[in-house]
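Long-time lurker. I teach an intro course on protein structure, and each term I like to show students one example going from raw sequence to a predicted 3D structure in token notation. This year I'd like something fresh instead of my usual example. Would anyone be willing to generate the tokens for the chain below so I can use it in lecture? Attribution to the forum is fine with me.
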Amino acid sequence: MQSAEALSERQFRILEGVIQIYVETAQPAGSEAVARHSRLGLSPASVRSAMSELEASGYLFHVHTSGGRIPTERGYRLYVNRLMHPVRVPRSARAKLESEIAPVARNPIEEILRRAAQVLGVLTQELGVAIAPTLDGLILERLELVRVSSDRLLVVLTLQSGLVRTIFVEVPAAVAPEVVQHVSGILNERLAGLKLGEIRGTLPERLRDAGSGNGDELLNIFVAEGEELFDFTGNDSVVLGSAQPLADQPEFASNERMRHLLELTERRDLLRRAFEDRHRHGLTITIGTENSDPRLAEFTLVTSSYRSGGLSGVIGVMGPTRMPYDKIIGLVEHTSRMVEGLME
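-- Reply from a regular --
Happy to contribute to a lecture. Here you go:
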């Protein structure tokens, strides 16, 4: 099996031609079509011979004996790493992103991401996906306890970067207003200035000697439930665009493939795990079985991280391995930079 370094320039050009034809038509590329596309002045017989060599090296395969070839994952990876020339984002696409996302600039970050994932999916004809910022690294600036009913408190967390998060806590009905105020003071004294991740991991220790009889019961609730209360990494951090663009692609013409796609969109936990580490890596392209979860083996993920202050997350698309990588990469990166700008 030949390594990429052992391939000739002719083989590179023919592999590139097969991939571009297959991406555009969703049909296996025959030798005559590749000969016309590559413009190498080769006969279809010579192209056919080179395609056989590429197949033997694991870059192409064919479904039928007499049919054309289609790329393997190895072929796509070589194309992305060595052959692809990213296309500049068209002015019309930049205008579309601006008109759809900029009007929600003052909205919560989740709304910005929802709009961005939606329009990115439309422009790429893939499934737009965004992961909301991880909050563990943000500092708690202050905390307020607000009684909303006889047995329920609203905890309002004001975080670094101006973010506000709220959580509900079930409390004994007998807790007096002055006790709520007292406990609020203790929580601010012990927790303000700390990162959320620190609070979640050390809350029992930080509150262990804070009780004085007045508010002990309420403090014990925070000690017992603190790890869950201060955890904002749930499945609601996954924002999806519409699956309709994917449903229109040939790969999902069968009911079984379509059902698998819809099941994946319901598995927010699976998608969160697949995307959550990518905010550290800039642009990332993961093809087929390169995905750690075998349920994503038929898909490519193209993502770009975004970062502003202490907030970071990722936005991108998920689609079949047959995708126009050269066009999609630019759109994903441009959208990521736009989200960063709006967050600032």
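Some talking points for your students: The chain has three domains: 4-83, 91-133+235-343, 140-229. The CA atoms of residues 31 and 329 lie 28 Å apart.
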